[in-house]
Amino acid sequence: MRLFACGVALWATGLMAVAQPAPCHCPDNLQQLVASTEANYAGYPTKVNARTRPAYQALLSSLRAKAARADGARACFFVLKEYIRFFYDKHFN
Fold first, then answer.
1. Terminus-to-terminus CA distance in the chain, angstroms?
2. Residue 18, CA distances (Å) to 5, 7, 8, 14, 30 in order
3. SS3 of 44, please?
């Protein structure tokens, strides 16, 4: 009987661990998106140039502050979406 009770307790603990979503680390997610975009997005050199770089840098500063305050995955999604919108590219979604 004890073995059965221990088995049920372990099973329930495993279910609770699976049921809880992983925490969203928005600053890390934003930094990963920025790094990936700067390294891989073919349109980056034309979208971020000498004329647009100040606006891009200001956007990054603003988004980093928002990401630090983002409360959950939904709020983080909108931070990341705002970054993507800077590029005005329907292929970049």
1. 55
2. 20, 17, 15, 6, 25
3. helix
3-class SS of residue 31: helix
Q: What's the whole-model pTM score?
A: 0.74
Nearest to 75 by CA among 15, 35, 41, 25: 25
How far is it, in rounded angstroms, from Cα 86 to Cα 83? Answer: 6
Place of tokens 């988004």: 63
- Give the tens place of pLDDT for each residue, 31-87: 999 999 999 999 999 999 999 999 999 999 999 999 999 999 999 999 999 999 999
Instruction: Kindly give, in sequence order, each residue whose CB lies less than 8 Å from that of residue 70, ignoring residues fewer than 6 positions away.
Output: 24, 26, 76, 79
